[in-house]
Design goal:
The protein is an alpha/beta fold. It is built from 19 helices and 27 strands. Helix 8 links the parallel strand 10 and strand 11. It is globular and about 75 Å long.
Amino acid sequence: MTKTNSLLQDFLHWEKACPEKDFLRQHFNGKLEVLSYGEAGDQIRRVAKAIVDKKLPGKSKIALMSNNCAHWIMCDLAIIMSGHISVPIYPSLNAGSIKLILDHSESKLLFVGKLENYEDKKSGFHNVPIIGIEKYGISSSETWESLVDQNERLENIKFKAPDDLITIIYTSGTTGNPKGVMHSVANFSNGVRNLFHDLKLSDHPRFFSYLPLAHIAERIGLENGAILKGGSITFPESLDTFAANLEETQPELFFAVPRIWAKFQEKILEGLPQKKLNIILNIPFLNSLFKKKLKTKLGLSNAKYIVSGAAPLSVGIMKWYKRLDIEILQLYGMTEDCAVSHGNLPERNKLGTVGKFTHGAHAKLSDTGEICVKNNCLLVGYYKDPEETAAVFDADGYLKTGDIGEYDHDGYLTITGRAKDQFKTDKGKYISPAPMELKLSKNSDIEQVCIVGMGIPQPIVLVIPSAQGKAKTQTELSESLLQSLLDINPTLEKHEKIEKAVIMKEDWSIENGLMTPTLKIKRSQVEKIHMPMYRSWFDAEERVLYE
């Protein structure tokens, strides 16, 4: 681990100490292209020199929009090296959302890299000058490649002060328009060091990056973590090559969101139904060989830490994986606290919780049960929004997360819901949907679930079936969901009991605006579309309905 105090200094340390070491490993057109620390550093320095020569106002905002790739990391470092502030934009956003962020951030330049549907997004780029990356078919008057070819290396690098901004991260907007979370140089340095104080990896580990780098978890844990440890980052070429690229990489740290774990499980059970899997797992010698082969096939044979975050993962799925010797650790954090808050570790992993305080973090519960966090990497504030900034901190300087939780006697935190997700039935009773949704998600016929019920006597559940569920007849799927209601309702308070299940005809996705880029359900949007139907669904005779 480096002994420097910024992301940029961490990179420069490894560029000098081991320029030949692998840094960025990019699968492209069926081949693996590798850039060492020295080779990547040469390109970064030349592009940084080109930016400096543009004489932009000091500490300008420069935006970056691309799917995960080697150039994402190089663009980010070039922006920082040139003394400016990077503004990452989720590549899945539509033109209107892109324009909103570019306008709000007052970005002076925009790097555009690996994108699908580039033509659909172009109108959102507004009047911001573009630097395209030719490798991914983005043509513009200036490109990454032309800047590398035409510029000298930047050698006289001026380092930012610890309190200077390094980035503005626009949140994915589950509850409305995204807010620009400002983080300083010190925040990023403290955040990654706090995280890797608990995650004990030796120098030069392998990482695999596929979740959006515009998100704080991938930014701190993968980009900053790899640079802190002198590691390599491998990028899959596409969804079609994801499994093969992951198997080839065998990273030492693997991070996923709940939907990914559900998809992995679904794929395994497609090839090996649960009954056959149970037989194999009950035969000692075969059991061991099978689990070893499966972990290798999944790309997890060398993974010292297998992590889930961004949303709660059901205990049922974690237990299922544990039988395969795949122990999933739930972590908890936010954009606003650099994702450094709570986490489980292999030596202390309590299923169903998000663990204990991570290194350098403290937390408390407010009078209403809201989780409040303090560490040395809390946001500087929300860009251009002093009122929201003031509102997010309590009188003692703790970040108010908006999540509701409880600690057990051993200090493990369980998240029981979002304060803003609570709704009131027409009986005047408040419902916290998250714990109920977790219970329902144990049913492998369910992929996505959303408990609703504002204005009706009892809650109902909206369901997106899994591939396994969709393969069943309507009668079989209805019986499966009805059985879940019969199993769960006795465990709920009277006002919580779920009256109906409604099977949706269309999946919730990023493309239709019902999921965030980090694969969390946009509850407010789902409610907005379906609320007019709540009463008729509630009044229907059937317990399980099709939309």
